[in-house]
Amino acid sequence: MCAGVCGVFVVAGCNGGTVDRHALTNDSSTLDSIACEGALLAHDVARGRSTVFFAREQAEELRIQSSNFADALSRRKTIPAIKDQVRQKAKHAATLAATLQQLHNHPSSRSVAASVERKLKKLGNCS
Amino acid sequence: MSKVLGLALGILAAIGGFVDIGDLVFNVSAGATFGYELMWVIPIGVVGIIVYSEMCGRVAAVSGKAVFDAIRERVGFKAGLGALVSSEVVNLMTLAAEVGGVAIALQLLSGLPYRWLIVLAIVALLVVIWVTSFEWLERIFGYGGLCMLVFAVAAIKLGPSWTDVGKGFIPHIAGDSKLLYGYFIIGLLGAALTPYEVYFYSSGGIEDQWSPKDIGLNRANAIIGYGLGGFLSLALMVVGAALFLSRGISPEHLGTIALGAEVPLGQIGLLLALVGILFAVGGASIDTVFSGAYNLAQFCGWEWGRYRHARGAPRFALTWIVLLVLAMGIVLTGVDPVVLTEYAVIFSVVALPLTYIPILLVANDRAYMGRYGNGRLANVLGLLYLVVIVIVALSAVPLMILTNVGQN
């Protein structure tokens, strides 16, 4: 059982291979998800409907996640045909992380939150 | 009157105590991924846990034997040892995930550093378990968990399409992403039927000193408590579908689930959701740590039970303390509790037959049960769910690998 648990952790949890089109599509949709969640959070902060601690910590969680993507997409091997797209996506993830950092730094500022919401909606093509 | 009060209190505790981190993660993610299409899985899982909890509660009330006593007696030492090891591994993973969930909820409420809160959560759980009676442990966390009802209000406030919600209760196969759909079915059933719930339920019956006259109370607790707990699971899925699906948000953090109450209800919704999550996962931490200690003590034939206090059952007390410390060590490695939850739920599914087959055998054994053995309905449902459990157990790990733990 223990060996099985470890084995499946390795097989299923492995995420460091070459970036192909499928992986890029998955990573792109995750980044859009992060942006749209951040926008939803910023929307509530802008209207005074959240708490300072929640906004700060949740924005930080999302920032770390997008920052990890930026790091991984800029370093991981890619198939040559999509190399530019992958590096572009890495920059996109870094921009997303920087925008979320603003919300983390100013979790009680309604004006910052409104600006962050607009940026994140654009970054994530959110509805 | 005291019986009615006892029943009401037990039901309230069961509602608040039904939802754990596995239910939170899988129900909201299922809604955010497939909308209302998987609503039908929840009643199936809830009826399953009612059937087997009622059975093992009845066995406990009549024979004074908990699940692992039965496992040891019915399947022999070697198979029993296999069941023990697998259940302890899954229990520890689940416990670590729940403790991580407690720390995250505290962090979102207080803004304090996560790692410090893991230690604080463990110390708080140790103190609460040490000083509080079993009855009050159930009640405190069950009542606190009632704050989770805020998700039912949020679900209504989000204005879902009730026609689509209704259609979701009709079992069907997804049009596309069939593997992912299958993975979520397994996860939802695993979250509802998780083995620690029956270990805790049956041993809890003995802690509460149930006797054959409590069989009616056992049945009512299981049916109404788990039934209403299932209602909470449905509410979580509706929130996932109505709020996150249309926005393309895939919930990967516990905080995202709380956002599901904040968006429709504002600060008060957020705070109730966070407090509810705190008590729900805190209560589940206690259930899992006790389950781990119950299983080992029952298998080894040690004295066990919270009611005996540490002096009366020292090895049992030492086991739950060690389990809490081990869980703290796991969470302090930095593993994501949400990811750990997904693995714990899927692996618990693999261990399900080892838990449920002995319960069914013992509940049918007239030597144990006398006239309180299973009736026709309990046997038909028990066998039906056993088939479901075996199918689910065999397909859990392949589906987890094929879908990259539900990522695609």
What do these coordinates show?
Chain A is mainly alpha-helical. Chain A has one domain (21-124): Up-down Bundle (Four Helix Bundle (Hemerythrin (Met), subunit A)). Chain A contains five helices and no strands. Chain A has helices at 2-13, 21-46, 52-75, 83-105, 110-124. The longest helix of chain A is centred in the first third of the chain and has 26 residues, at 21-46. Chain A starts with a helix and ends with a helix. Helices cover 81% and strands 0% of the residues of chain B. By secondary structure, chain B is mostly helical. In chain B, α2 (21-34) packs across α15 and α9 (178-192) packs across α15 (337-363). Chain B has 17 helices and no strands. Chain B has one domain (2-402): Amino acid/polyamine transporter I (Up-down Bundle). Chain B has helices at residues 2-18, 21-34, 41-63, 67-110, 114-131, 134-145, 150-157, 162-167, 178-192, 195-207, 215-245, 254-300, 309-312, 314-332, 337-363, 366-369, 376-402. Chain A binds chain B through residues 1-2, 4-5, 8-9, 11-13, 15, 22, 26, 29-30, 32-33, 36-37, 40-41, 44, 48-54, 56-58, 61-62, 65, 124, 126-127, and chain B through 82, 85-86, 89, 93, 107-111, 246-253, 255-256, 258-259, 262-263, 266-267, 270-271, 274, 339, 343, 347, 351, 397, 400-401, 404-405, 407-408.
Largest sheet of chain B: none
Helices and strands of chain B: which structural class? Answer: mainly alpha
The end-to-end distance of chain A, rounded to whole angstroms, is: 45 Å
CATH topology of chain A: Four Helix Bundle (Hemerythrin (Met), subunit A)
Mean pLDDT of chain A: 88
CATH class designation of chain A: Mainly Alpha
Strand count of chain A: 0
The number of helical elements of chain B comes to 17
The total number of structural domains of chain B is: 1
CATH second-level architecture of chain B: Up-down Bundle
What pattern of helices and strands is seen along the backbone of chain A?
Answer: HHHHH
User: What oligomerization state is this entry in?
Assistant: heterodimer
Q: Sum up the overall morphology of chain A in one term.
A: elongated
Strand content of chain A: under 5%
For the secondary structure, the number of strands of chain B is 0
Poorly predicted parts of chain A: 10-15
Helix content of chain A: over 70%
What proportion of the residues of chain B is helical, as a percent range? Answer: over 70%
Work out the radius of gyration of chain A: 17 Å
